[in-house]
Amino acid sequence: MLKGFRDFIMRGNVVDLAVAVIIGGAFGQVVGSLVSDVLTPLIGALGGAPDFSAWKLGPVALGKFVNAVVNFLVVAAAVYFLVVVPMNEVQKRLRKEAQEAPPAPPEPPEEVKLLREILETLKSKP
What keywords are annotated for this sequence in UniProt (predicted)? Predict the structure, then answer.
């Protein structure tokens, strides 16, 4: 039973998924800090205080919803412009380089080289 558990844990995709979740959590903190500490104050400096939580429509706290929507849009824009666009550019450049430089043909095996030498020798004899 423990061997099966060990095999399950050591399977490649489980380890990859665990690493992705950990990196994703850390990246989430970085993006959250970027939004709350850098972008939101910049938006506030440009257009006044970026806090809509005081907005109410009767008993409905409409401002909290607006804050959540604005936060989502800012996070989505930050991820898009700071991660997606640069990664697309890198992938485009890598694909372009791969297309420009086709791989060299592999070296033929020794048997093929020897057979070619024999053929050349036979062709050169009268």
Answer: Cell membrane, Ion channel, Ion transport, Membrane, Transmembrane, Transmembrane helix, Transport
